[in-house]
Automatic annotation (TrEMBL):
It comes from the Bacteria. Pfam families: Beta-lactamase2 (PF13354). Residues 17-97 form the Beta-lactamase class A catalytic domain. PANTHER family: BETA-LACTAMASE, BETA-LACTAMASE-TYPE TRANSPEPTIDASE FOLD CONTAINING PROTEIN. Keywords: Hydrolase. One of its GO terms (molecular function) is hydrolase activity. This is Serine hydrolase. Transmembrane segments: none annotated.
Amino acid sequence: MNAKRYQYSTKSNDFGDTAIFLKKLYAGKIVSEEASAQMIEIMKKQQVQDSLPGKLQYLPDSQYNWQLAHKTGWIPGYRHDVGIFYVREQAFIASIFSKGIDDFVSSQAFADIGMEIFNYMTEKQENNVKTGSVN
């Protein structure tokens, strides 16, 4: 394998750029509303599930009504998972990148982050129901 293939480039995307892109995608402002919706549906079918949804994949969809439209990337020493969490009627954009961390450790950390986001969203929603708040 050619080591140069995996060299880190400062010209690559970063988490901020990706979060901005996802926000525009969620708002329907990438190409068109229809194209944005189609891209999100494709992202919901992501088959790599060992990062942000690593712990969530074992929760029953019907009980928690959650989905994650996300895109992953991985090469040795680098991992990213970016996406839009949908929990009931809420959306949350996450853009997580790691560099120089053991692959198993980064995968587990991403799964922990995904679970924390999910817990935050469900607790926020339960608190809003108790107080009558919207959002």
